[in-house]
Amino acid sequence: MPQFHGNMVIQMQMLEGLEVVLHDANKAIIASLVAFFFTPTNLIAAIDDRPGETVYLKWRLGDFELTELDETAAKKMLRKSKRMKPIDEPLPNDQQIAALLNLSRMGFDLMRPATQQLSPGDEHAVLTIFRPGEAKKLEFGIWGSQGFVGTLGANEATSITLPPGEHFFLAGNVGTTFLKARLQAGHHYYVMLDFGKMIGRVRLTPIAAHNSSKLDRWLEDVRWVKLDSDTLTDGVRERENIVGQFIRETAARTETGESDFALISNENAF
Known about the structure:
The chain is an alpha+beta fold. Helix content is 22%, strand content 33%. The chain has 6 helices and 15 strands. The termini are far apart.
């Protein structure tokens, strides 16, 4: 991993989608940054769907956001920058799916406050996924076999109704976490989206019913949110189709034992 000091300018020539060609010394720098946990959270939003453009982005180590510069200001900073030898070949874009999983990083504002709490019924169960209070600017998308579930920021929770039976869920940042849920109608199930601060991995952890007192404390101050169906534009649906294929492939690997997963079963029923 290169060492960085102060400001730097990242120059990118956009092709299509999330595939990019990176110029000059900045090629090696951004190739490392894209795969590193502290990649600024608005990187994908800044470069997504801008074919044919040259984009200049300024980033300071430790910041979670990028600032776009005009060409004059960017080239002035570049003239003061130390040039380094670029890598021989661009690295593969291994963050494409991770970026697609977290739609808020592409500028999509999809969640709204939830004013009513869902209750299980004779023909459905309720699944609640929540995050404890952590790094506020980091948001993570939750996906299921039925499609996009929602985005959770720090100290937020969302609930959905589901028919009884087996369901599959995942979330991702550095790596991907998988969850199978075997649900019964009339029950409420809870899952914590846990976030590792050192490495940046996320994990979907089912809450056992005997931990009800801890659950009450975790949920005491959360903000309840829900997915706003009116925000699901063609751009969101396009990405949902791409991720849907990834979910189907991943679910198949869990069936054959190629991928590990957490499991919700009877001991998680409230």
